[in-house]
Amino acid sequence: MRRLVLFMHVSLDGFVTDPNGGMGFIKVDEEIFDYVGDRTNRSDMALYGRVTYEMMDAYWPSAPDKPNATKHEKEHGAWYNRVDKVVLSKSMKGQQKPNTIIISEDVEHRIKALKQQAGSEILIFGSPSAAHSLMQYGLIDEFWLFVNPVLVGGGGTPLFNNTQLPAELKLVTTKSFSNGVVCLGYQKS
Q: Is residue 187 part of a domain?
């Protein structure tokens, strides 16, 4: 049975985007890439909303082949090309993509069915709208929140809104990075 794990960068005041929809406040570096890469390599499926999927799919399939590809680009690109992908999207309904399942309706039951299959875990990278949908049905088993030391001040996209069901969470890991970001890992109790 697979676990559904959310990886999300968030501001200290709980936003995943600024008021303009930007994510320029997010701090990433090699230390964070290495930490996330260790966890990513243990996972066998990725889940995205349409916008994040289109951004990822435009970059990662060829990223490892670039002559000046970084260690992160080589490793994450290889992982991206290897794993199955799930995309939550009404506008992509009926499209066929290699190693990709597009879910346009009956999200709750389709994701529950994927979680029942053999495998390690499904990682959700970003994709706030998809995360909100999954939280609404109580489908996320772990939250790995990368808290960035910045206050957005409102007007952006909140990580948690009124759509999620109440959930009791247990802190299972913390990691401080030299750039000021702190990862907080929570599991459903």
A: no
What pTM was computed for the model? Answer: 0.92
**Structural domain range at position 60:** 3-8+29-165
For the chain, which residues score pLDDT lower than 50?
none
Sheet hosting strand 121-125, strand order edge to edge: 100-103, 84-88, 45-49, 121-125, 3-11, 142-148, 182-188, 169-176
Helices 128-136, 107-116: inter-axial angle, 10-degree rounding: 90
pLDDT of residue 27: 95
Count of structural domains within the chain: 1
Could you tell me the CATH number of the domain that includes residue 42? 3.40.430.10
In-domain check, residue 173: no
Answer yes or no: are the C-beta atoms of 2 and 120 closer than 8 Å: yes
Dist CA 175 CA 185 (whole Å): 9
Whether residue 18 is contained in a domain is answered as no
